[in-house]
Structure formats: C-alpha cells, structure tokens
Design goal:
single chain; 232 residues; 3% strand
Length: 232
C-alpha cells in the first residue's frame, strides 16, 4: 500500500481571481502604464497584515489564487525546502528584489515626463511581476504551489509586521483549534498550501499565530471532526 502524500491539492469555494494576473501580464505588455497596478499587490498585503495577518495572500492575491486553483492540481506537492523559510534567505530576497527595482528605475526616461515616463515605470513593475511569476510557476512544478509564497518579498514583509502575540487587533483573522484535537489525522497540515501545522495550536486561546498562515481556511474545511474554526 502506497503511503499517502502529506501535502495534497484541496479545492475550496471562492472567486477565481487568477484571471487578474493573467490579464495584467497580457495587457501591460501592450500598455506598459498598466504595470503600475502592481503597486496594489505590493502595498495591500503589507498594510492588511498589520491587523489581519497574511490574509491578503490567502484571499486577495491573484497570483496566490493561481497557485491554489490551477497549479495545485498538477504540482507534485513535495516538501518546500526549509532554507527558503530562513530569515537570512528571506532578507536576501527582499534586498535583491528591491535592488533590481532600483536598477531598473534608474533606466527610466524621467526627463521625458508624461505617459512615456509612467509607461517606463509601469514596465519596470511588469518585468518584476513576470519574472517572479515565472519563478513561482517553475517552483510549483518542482516542489509545491506556494513555494514562492514562502519567501515572496512582500509576503516576508507582511510576516514581519503581522501580530505575533496577544493582545491581537480586533480585526485579526485567525485559526482556532479546540483541545479536542488529538493530532492523529493531521488533515489540516495535509491541505495547508504553506505546509504549516495548525494542530500545534490546539487548545490555545489566542489561536494559531504562525506569521506565515495565509488564513485561507482550507484546514478548517478539511478537518474531519470540525473542531477548527476561522475567526474574523
């Protein structure tokens, strides 16, 4: 009898937001100024994380939605390498990506002004989004769908600013596991796109406070005994 994979695809209800990233990549190729919309997905996750944790990553991010809804069906769901979650590697990625931004922005035709200048800036954002999306897609087929999300620069910054201990903001979204959990089935960990272990927080009043939890709620839906809740 073959051993069941620890991580697996798990479909959940919700909107198919992945079309946004696909449309963005296509349209911004022809109209570079559209590339500026990437600012929303750079600022949004960090701001919302201050009071809701990495909620944006699990509910709003179009690229994350693509990983969960499309690529998850074909990914081998292997274990995400531990080193990509380390502070050092994640700090390196933040510095690297923003350095690339700086280098490309230095080539913008600032003196032109108007649509030419904004188009150049938009092209910079588009280039970074396309490059990182390609990396994310490749990693999805090598390891797991959300491998990129484990060290995404904006996800890392969101992790840094997310609440990590009580008292928590009133709007904080969190997973709660009752003390009835016996950690035997580990169904919650098998479907977690970030390959986390929510059952570790069983019986804890403050809930699961891992800063990389994206609040997607898959663990709650997959729990066979329904002793997990997602509190908003």
């Amino acid at each position: 009898m073959t051993q069941k994979r620890f991580h697996r695809h798990f479909a959940t209800p919700g909107l198919p937001l992945y079309w946004i990233i696909i449309a963005y990549i296509i349209l911004a190729w022809f109209f570079p100024v559209i590339g500026l919309l990437a600012l929303i997905c750079m600022i949004g996750p960090v701001l919302t994380s201050i009071w809701k944790g990495r909620y944006w990553c699990g509910h709003i991010c179009p690229r994350g939605n693509m990983y969960d809804r499309l690529l998850s069906k074909y990914s081998p769901h292997r274990e995400i390498p531990k080193f990509v979650r380390t502070f050092g590697f994640r700090l390196f990625m933040v510095i690297f990506i923003f350095t690339m931004f700086g280098i490309q922005l230095s080539m913008v035709r600032w003196s032109e002004g108007g649509l030419t200048m904004w188009g150049d800036i938009g092209r910079v954002f588009w280039t970074i989004i396309v490059a990182t999306t390609m990396v994310g897609v490749i990693l999805s087929f090598i390891y797991a769908p959300r491998t990129w999300c484990s060290f995404c620069p904006m996800g890392t910054i969101s992790r840094w600013v997310a609440p990590k201990h009580a008292p928590l903001p009133k709007a904080f979204t969190n997973i709660h596991v009752t003390s009835a959990c016996q950690m035997k089935c580990k169904s919650c960990a098998r479907v977690c796109p970030m390959q986390l272990t929510p059952y570790d927080s069983r019986g804890q009043e403050e809930g699961y406070l891992h800063p990389d939890c994206i609040k997607c709620g898959k663990c709650v839906l997959a729990c066979p005994t329904k002793i997990m809740t997602l509190n908003h």
